[in-house]
Automatic annotation (TrEMBL):
CDD domains associated with the record: PnbA_NfnB-like (cd02136)
Lineage: Bacteria, Pseudomonadati, Pseudomonadota, Alphaproteobacteria, Hyphomicrobiales
Protein name: Nitroreductase
Source species: Camelimonas fluminis
Gene3D superfamilies: NADH Oxidase
Pfam families xrefs: Nitroreductase
InterPro entries: Nitroreductase, Nitroreductase-like, Nitroreductase/BluB
Nitroreductase domain ranges (all copies): 7-193
Keyword Flavoprotein: yes
Keyword Ribosomal protein on entry: no
Keywords: Flavoprotein, FMN, Oxidoreductase
PANTHER family for this protein: IODOTYROSINE DEIODINASE 1 (PTHR23026:SF90), NADPH NITROREDUCTASE (PTHR23026)
């Protein structure tokens, strides 16, 4: 598979089959992803992959403990402005429309939101941490690690869903994996095989046209 094919196929999958992912494949993906760019070769990522009984235990514990009083960080800026606010609103509406949940069905929307806490049925949960003292350049490195991981997973016929949702449960997850106090959770990644029959996996998140965000000079 060419990289361009992986980029086009990759999507945030929100319904997985329960089929297990072999340990050697998971290890290969995590290790090879560390070839991602890293300023000064700092390599600020710390990764925990869970499956089977440990993952089930963590999910149960997170549901039992509930969300932290405050998230580890703000996923979006307060009072998100245009055009970003509209983009976020539109993808949310498209997601719920794909599974037939209208805007007025708040219980239905909450039930779908709660599926985040089950990793959408994925058999593997990858939780990515960073040192609390790291700054924006290292957070950028973390993003490049995650993108590399997701594209490599696509190449291997797997699918992913990066989930900042888990920042709301950082205390539980950090304690569960015995993370040092100076290390914080950034996100989880659901990893597995997509359920091709699930309507929610037909969602195609559009991208703004190049003219809205790109300029070329001197060409």
């Amino acid at each position: 598979m060419h990289v361009s094919e992986a980029v086009r196929r990759r999507m945030s999958v929100r319904a997985f089959r329960p089929d297990p992912v072999p340990a050697d494949i998971v290890r290969e993906l995590l290790e090879l992803s560390a070839r991602a760019p890293s300023g000064g070769n700092v390599q600020p990522w710390h990764v925990h992959a869970l499956t089977g009984a440990p993952l089930a235990e963590l999910i149960d514990l997170a549901n039992e403990n509930g969300a932290d009083p405050e998230p580890a960080y703000d996923v979006y800026p307060h009072n998100l402005w245009e055009p970003y606010r509209t983009r976020r609103f539109q993808i949310g509406e498209a997601l719920y429309a794909s599974i037939g949940i209208p805007r007025e069905d708040k219980p239905g929307r909450l039930r779908q939101l709660a599926r985040n806490g089950m990793l959408f049925g994925a058999p593997v949960g990858v939780f990515v941490f960073i040192d609390r003292k790291m700054g924006p350049p290292q957070w950028s490195d973390l993003g490049m690690y995650l993108q590399t991981l997701m594209l490599l997973a696509t190449e291997r016929g797997l699918d992913t869903c990066p989930q900042e949702y888990w920042a709301r449960f950082a205390n539980t997850i950090e304690r569960f994996v015995n993370a040092p106090e100076d290390r914080m959770l950034f996100c989880g990644v659901a990893l597995g095989y997509r359920d091709e029959a699930a309507p929610i996996n037909t969602l195609d998140a559009p991208r703004a046209p190049f003219a809205e965000w790109g300029q070329m000079h001197g060409f």
